[in-house]
Design brief:
By secondary structure, the chain is mainly alpha-helical. It is built from 10 helices and no strands.
Length: 222
């Protein structure tokens, strides 16, 4: 006597069997055609784009990865004082954030790029963004108007347009040139944007230094 055992797809046509197999392969059905409970798949993968921008994270990275001749701040306290006047992020797509005048942009360049090639990327990770995280005048004016506000008792410029117009007339000298660069050690004199960038660092810690930042600067003059 012959015996016939029932298959799990009994009563299904060949097309239906193929459909069930495809669904099982896709992970929506088990091989016995019962639904898969999504909870059985475990926790969802974290799809976040990267670390949330913060002055604490940014300063830790830039102080660790940009040292020696590539150092952007004298101390982590100086970094945090300056960072407090920068916008954390700009309302842009993620790719554009790598070129925005924000902490997020500086944090991006201070991380992997600066770790692998500090000479190439630490300037972008620095306080003025190295003309990568926005242009220098944008960084200068954003921080000036925040650090040198009426609330602090000393103002350097009345508005963003006034600051931007003045900044466009300041001479900027590249690193290596006489009076050039924008590092934590100056230059601290000469009628240039470089000099004002130096004193802006100081103004984030002492508002009295704001008088050094306008076109009639008491120290940035020839």
């Amino acid at each position: 006597m012959s015996m016939v055992f029932g298959a799990s797809t009994a009563g299904c046509s060949s097309d239906e069997e193929a459909g069930l197999a495809s669904a099982a392969d896709a992970g929506t059905l088990r091989r016995d055609a019962s639904p898969v409970d999504p909870r059985e798949a475990g926790p969802a993968l974290d799809a976040s784009p990267g670390p949330v921008p913060s002055c604490e994270k940014y300063c830790d990275l830039v102080m660790h990865n940009c040292t020696g001749d590539d150092a952007q701040y004298d101390s982590i306290e100086d970094c945090r004082a300056f960072c407090a006047h920068l916008p954390l992020a700009q309302p842009t797509r993620e790719a554009e954030e790598k070129a925005a005048a924000s902490v997020a942009c500086r944090q991006y360049w201070a991380d992997g790029p600066a770790r692998t090639s500090p000479k190439a990327y630490c300037l972008a990770a620095g306080p003025f963004g190295g003309n990568t995280c926005g242009d220098r005048c944008t960084a200068f004016c954003n921080v000036v108007l925040s650090a040198c506000s009426p609330d602090g008792g000393v103002t350097a410029y009345a508005s963003q347009p006034e600051c931007a117009t003045a900044c466009a007339d300041f001479t900027y000298r590249d690193r290596g040139a006489d009076g050039g660069g924008e590092g934590p050690n100056g230059p601290s004199d000469g009628d240039s944007l470089n000099c004002r960038l130096y004193w802006l660092r100081e103004a984030t810690k002492d508002a009295e230094k704001c008088t050094s930042l306008n076109p009639q600067s008491d120290v940035c003059k020839d």
